[in-house]
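Dig into this one:

. . .
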Amino acid sequence: MKLLVISTPGFDGAETETINALFSAGLEILHLRKPGWSNLQMAELLDGIDPAHHPRIMIHSNYDLLEKYQLRGAHLPSRSIHPCSTTPAYSRSRSCHSIEEVECLTGIYEYLFISPVFDSVSKQGYLSAVSVDELHNCTNSSGRRLVALGGITAQKLPELSSSICWGAAALGTIWQHEGVVERVSSFCDLQKIADRI
């Protein structure tokens, strides 16, 4: 199973160091989600990330930086009406918050986030709305690559499998730690579990 990481939404002084360390530890795909950030702020963040890692980064905004930084692709928000103006050379992913949304979705996406699968670590009161059984059935019926989001912890991740979903995305489990070493250690613990399932 794929393990993805989503950035913390706000400013974090050790973020670029953490991101570089996560990639060095084997992270395959990072989602940069920075609501309200300007192109300049996003560019400064990307400038701090080793360019060798740029092709593994999906961005949730500031899509005009895709080509300049040779990023992996663009992530679209749930219920986005218009696709972003990316070329076929770039990957696209999208957020969904219900099984119905996945089933009604048209368009070509490399994978879809579906959330919350478990109670969120980073968002208080953001409780599970999609069961593991529903996720499994949706994977089989839709043929889509689904990425479980919400409450992805070392305790919950074993409840998933590659037959239930293509991947899982971690946010709070990683960024709840203050230090880079602890963040990377948390990622590595999750990666070991993902590799087994």
